[in-house]
Amino acid sequence: MTINSGTKLYLKNANRLVVDAGSTIIIEDNVHIFGETATQFENTPQEIVGNRIIVNGSASIGPNVLFTALKNQTWDGLYLYGTGQSELIDVTFENCNLFCANGSLSVRDSDFDQSLVKCSGASMNFRDCTITGKMSFNNALEVR
Length: 144
Prior knowledge:
mainly beta, globular
């Protein structure tokens, strides 16, 4: 799947974008992805699903790609579950998450503003990045 250069993608309500195992998502330059809702667990009788991009395959993202929230809210963001290698170059995350489980992730020249970065059972390599917010590494294989 390819999201072409200059595209503005809006995830609203409980919408999610899912990339199957064995597939690749390519997000070309100058793409803006807007999310509206975060998954809620607390004080609810059941999980309330939020917006999320779920990649069970691999991803190539950037440059100048923006993941941000509508109306200064937060949203779930990008979840990388594939066992392959994913690369993010010159990507900005604002008020959303980046989660990586399995595989490996290389991130360079990117900014994270009030965005949770979480790794579980994966190798992550960050180079020349600015992070303002939280990072969590659970069972990370390697973080550089």
